[in-house]
Specification:
By secondary structure, the protein is an all-alpha fold. The chain has 5 helices and no strands. The radius of gyration is 17 Å and the shape is elongated.
């Protein structure tokens, strides 16, 4: 989740050598935001699918809330992308996350994934020059940290249910 797109950066480096620094920075930020949009959509679908198969009503609502948050994040990021590039985020195939039937293991994986997402957004904020965009991304980062905590709570509940 949220790779730094090292393989794509090498492709862009040759063209970047002849571009002014602000354009280079914008292209890197755009690439990172494009990847983040895909990840947010993937996570939204994943959490909705987890909610659909969940029997515990409390945990079901937690999954639905996280799904809604991820959808909101993707929309915010799509707007930022369009503002900085002038175009919509290109359509690309969304990878579907595999649902883990081991609910304890799933909660562990989800907790770690969300905390990695928060770290990604922290790093993204450090390269965003526009303060308004940085504030929006900071809110997303805070949500990702909250999702890590929610998944930790789900993990605790799952262990108690064993």
């Amino acid at each position: 989740m949220y790779p730094y797109i090292d393989e794509n950066i090498n492709v862009v480096k040759a063209a970047e050598e002849e571009l002014p620094a602000p354009i280079v920075q914008t292209s890197r930020v755009a690439m990172l935001i494009e990847e983040a949009v895909k990840d947010e959509i993937t996570d939204s679908i994943y959490y909705m699918e987890m909610a659909e198969k969940e029997e515990d009503s409390f945990i079901k609502e937690l999954y639905k809330t996280m799904s809604d948050d991820e959808t909101r994040h993707s929309k915010i990021l799509e707007e930022i992308y369009k503002d900085i590039t002038g175009i919509k985020v290109p359509n690309s195939e969304i990878e579907k996350r595999v649902l883990n039937d081991d609910y304890v293991e799933a909660a562990k994986e989800d907790m770690v994934s969300e905390l990695k997402g928060a770290a990604f957004y922290r790093d993204l904020i450090s390269v965003i020059e526009d303060k308004d965009y940085a504030e929006e991304i900071n809110l997303i980062m805070n949500d990702e940290q909250s999702h890590g905590i929610i998944n930790s709570a789900i993990l605790t509940l799952r262990k108690q249910q064993l």
